[in-house]
Amino acid sequence: MRAFITASGQCLPGSPVGNAAMADHIGRLSERCEREGRLALRQNGIRSRHYAMDANGRTDWTVARLAAGAVADILDRAEIDRSRIGYLATATTQNDIMVPGLASLVHGESGLPPLEVSSHQSVCASSMMALKGAALQISAGEHRAALAVGAEFASRYFRPGHYAETDTLSADGTLPRDAAFLRWTLSDGAAGVLVEDRPAGRGLSLAIDWISLRSFADRFAPCMTGGAMAGADGTLTPWSHADTIGDAARRGAFQLRQDMDALHRMLPVWLGELMRLVDEGRVAVDEVDWFLCHFSAKSLREEMVRLATRAGCMIPEERWFTNLYEKGNVGAASPFLLIDDLLRSGRLRAGQRILCAVPESGQCIMAYALMTVVEGPQ
Amino acid sequence: MSDGRSLHVEAAQRGLARVWIDFESALATVPVIARLLGGRLRIEDYRSLLFNLRQQVVEGGRWISRAASNLSHEELRSLFIRHAAAEHRDYRLLEDNYVAAGGDRDVIRSGAKNIGSEALSAFMFHAASRAEPVGMLGAMFVIEGLGNRLAGPWAAAIRDQLGLGEDAVSFLAYHGENDADHLAMFDDALALAVTDEAVAVDVVRHAKVVARLYRLQLEELDNV
């Protein structure tokens, strides 16, 4: 594959919000709920994040505007003009509106010229779908400059009004664990990269060596869901099958949920993919200088270290790069946020290898990407 | 940094993990498992599953102890013997579950192996009968992995779908709870056994064969 990340950028709304101020933005449901929140924060280890929702539950942001903000930031640092972009791939968990696709909305907000678009909707791994699409478009010679952008605005689903009069919220004001964890874990923002057919003339670029993405939905039921009504036996019914929209809402169809136990069952499969890449000679653990792993909880990271060590796939922790604890879990924007922060850190050197790992719990996807830091024309 | 020997152990662990991933993927397509995962299991399905498993599980203690008798490595032999002792009466739980699920104890006790169980069992005894059968660790990995990773969720799903009590799913539930210890023991055994690349390859190969034959056993329910 011949494709290079030549610029990156991000758009995080407002100032960082510490744990104590979170409830000002997502609202307060009950005392007990806040106690559960403190528990979730111990699990995920996040200390601050950004919210597009202000303290009064109002916002001027949308996912499309956040993504357009990231596009502007990327182009501010690119060596090419926006008129040269031929392809725009977007990634998100939930678009602002159901129709049309996010790429169209972002195109409309970003001042880009007529171009090819591609809307990727999944969870965190949608970022890698967008990046792979962009890299292949460039590599195939279809376009010379492409943007891949991930954006999320999860906090709007966490306001008290989204739980009121639904079966999700119990009489004592608490949420089930599968709905509570995400409320205290996900936050807002956008980030992305510019992919070109050559490295930037100045500074560092990332040559994309390969991107591998595989779904394991053949063996996992949906485990992070939104828009479904769960029956007593766990079967999911689409929200649109309810007799009335009000009925769907009352039955909790619009809450985002995460089955936490399923995460631990997925972990061996996610790591199995790394083992496959090691056995196929595509990853040499000793040659990875930076490991960018998007993980949703500190507790998962610890389990991952144990399994990887046993199979000789452990990348020493001093080579891990994360911004989860300061910038939060921003879903499909997170992998791009990691790349952008690493590129800006001043710690990269030409020749270094970066391995990105993006697991998605939705219905189990695992993506890995290998990149090499390059400097100047190749 | 790993030394040469632990590199082989790590390669075996990777190979086994990958065999497991393919196995779990393929299992989901076996009709009875697909019905279980899809919430469409019938009580006859469950009884048939217990009936068919019992005919192979009853031999578990025997092939593990036969393998033990062919091992000259004392510590490994000791691990195999302890494992055989822990497993060799498991089939009784299966029989109790069968009765609790409405089956007749005499019927399950007088049953024959299905053609898949026959192949699985034949391979186990064949492999266990060879000198220094350390490759059997791969077979144990698959069987213990089933217990550790799948038996617990299966037990819960069967109980819920069929409205059965704990006394009807205790075989699966027991393995769901206890095979984590067995897998920890397995890691120790693997570290002792895998001394070179050939052993690592052999262990992974045994796992591959057993994974396929175990699936065959589930595909051939009641085909005797």
UniProtKB/TrEMBL annotation, chain A:
Beta-ketoacyl-[acyl-carrier-protein] synthase III C-terminal domain boundaries: 282-357
Gene3D superfamilies named among the record's database cross-references: 3.40.47.10
Keywords: Acyltransferase, Transferase
Keyword Transmembrane helix among record annotations: no
Gene Ontology MF, one: acyltransferase activity, transferring groups other than amino-acyl groups
Biological-process GO terms, alphabetical: secondary metabolite biosynthetic process
SUPFAM superfamilies: Thiolase-like (SSF53901)
Domain Thiolase N-terminal span(s) in chain numbering: 59-155
Pfam families the record matches: ACP_syn_III_C, Thiolase_N
Keyword check for Transferase: yes
Designated name of the protein: 3-oxoacyl-ACP synthase
Organism: Sphingomonas populi
From TrEMBL, chain B:
InterPro entries per the UniProt record, alphabetical: Haem_Oase-like_multi-hlx (IPR016084)
One family name in Pfam for this protein: Haem_oxygenas_2
Name listed for the protein in its UniProt record: 3-oxoacyl-ACP synthase
Gene source species: Sphingomonas populi
